[in-house]
Design goal:
CATH class: Mainly Alpha
Structural class: mainly alpha
Number of strands: 2
Shape: globular
Radius of gyration: 13 Å
Number of domains: 1
Number of helices: 5
Order of helices and strands: EEHHHHH
Largest sheet: 2 strands, antiparallel
Length: 110
């Protein structure tokens, strides 16, 4: 599939994940959010930037439990819990954080 961002055509999977990690930028994230009926707030960006750093550091994606625990360690228990994360990403925090961050679909997500 192809997604248009400005004057660029970017290849995506059938579920809307970027095929090329290097195609990502904040404009792409905003477009992906709009396609998924999300309006990005500073709280969303905090999680998006966190998962990008995590992926760059560890070269893999965590499962949902490890993701939540890593958020708690980085930002505190108030943000590192399912209720908070589902409030930001109602259809699946890990899956949508990764999608909006331009990362691959986590292997543990349907």
């Amino acid at each position: 599939m192809v997604m248009s961002v400005g004057d660029h055509e970017l290849e995506t999977t059938d579920q809307g994940f970027l095929v090329n990690l290097n195609d990502w930028n904040t404009e792409v994230a905003e477009r992906l959010a709009a396609l998924n009926a999300l309006e990005l707030t500073p709280a969303h960006w905090e999680i998006i930037r966190f998962i990008r750093r995590y992926y760059q550091q560890f070269k893999h994606l965590p499962n949902a439990r490890v993701f939540t625990k890593a958020i708690a360690k980085e930002f505190g228990e108030g943000k590192g819990n399912s209720r908070y994360l589902h409030g930001l990403f109602p259809d699946g925090p890990l899956k949508y954080a990764c999608k909006l961050a331009g990362l691959p679909k986590p292997p543990t997500c349907l």
